Amino acid sequence: MSSSVLSMARPSATTATAASASTNCATAATATLLAQQLNAALASGKSVSTTTTTVMNPPKQALLAAKIIQQSHVVCFDVDSTVICEEGIDELAEFCGKGSEVARVTKEAMGGSMSFQDALKIRLNIIRPTQQQVDEFIKTRPSTLSRNVKRFVAQLKADGKQVFLISGGFDCLIAPVAIELGIPLSHMYANKMLFDYKGDYDSFDITQPTSRSGGKAEAIGMIRKRLASPECAMITMIGDGATDLEAVPPANNFIGYGGNVVRPEVYRRAQYYITDFEQLM
């Protein structure tokens, strides 16, 4: 018996190929170096100013990204490392004394050695949080909102846009964030932890779209079906990770976010990239 906590000058013909290859290599190298600089500063606890000359000007087409937001009917956000500064499952693991073990599995999963759902299952089986531990974690370790996200969400709502949260994290950890931002819980797509009658961890709900690979795109497809004019609606996804980037389609646009952590592949592939939500206001 289980119960659930409420819980992304044209070159000549003879030189085009070489120039293109050179540009791609330079872009990838720039993205990697940028990520190393920002992530090192963030890991050391130092504040990072993305406007200083020590960082290679990370925003990409921020003004166009802001125009896309103006044109969007629906804006969807990733949560971990986007709306909030932390990665929820890593924080919960640390709180439960399983931080290093979970970090190892996370690293393996990022290397592509296992599916998202398998990685989620393994990490939760390591942590095995009780319902009481989750409640204590939420009370004592509240999530930290990313810079200017609360103002940005308030502006989106004032402009009549619908706002959704789509996360591979857990609804019990994300619900307080949604409430703080004034986002209805019905506009939240996330995973659900299941507990037995004693409050011990049992499993997680594998029917949730975000519990599997490609789940964020699936969630956006579900959101589109909820709209009055689904075919005409413009949906924009904002996030820091590859799963957010891959939500297009069915999302119309993706805006990369690197205010907390920079993923080199996302920075390289994203057409639009911002480091502060103020850049979209």
Number of strands: 9
Largest β sheet strand count, sense and barrel closure: 6 strands, parallel
End-to-end CA span: 47 Å
Taken in chain order, the helices and strands follow as EHHEHHHHHHEHEEEHEHEHE
How much of the residues is beta strand, in percent?
Answer: 5-15%
**pLDDT under 50 segments (min length 5)?**
1-57
Question: What is the CA-based Rg, rounded?
Answer: 19 Å
Instruction: Please count the helical segments.
Output: 12
Percent helix among the residues?
A: 40-55%
Overall form: globular
The main sheet orders its strands as: 4-3-2-7-8-9
- Helix-strand makeup class: alpha/beta
Q: Which whole number gives the mean pLDDT?
A: 80
Q: What brief labels describe this structure?
A:
three-stranded antiparallel β-sheet; six-stranded parallel β-sheet; 281 residues; alpha/beta; single chain; disordered N terminus
What do these coordinates show?
38% of the residues are buried. It is built from twelve helices and nine strands. The protein is 46% helix and 14% strand. It is of the alpha/beta class. Helix 4 runs antiparallel to helix 5 and helix 5 packs antiparallel against helix 6. Helix 12 links the parallel strand 8 (253-257) and strand 9. A six-stranded parallel β-sheet has the order 4-3-2-7-8-9, with helices on both faces. A three-stranded antiparallel β-sheet has the order 1-5-6, with helices on one face.
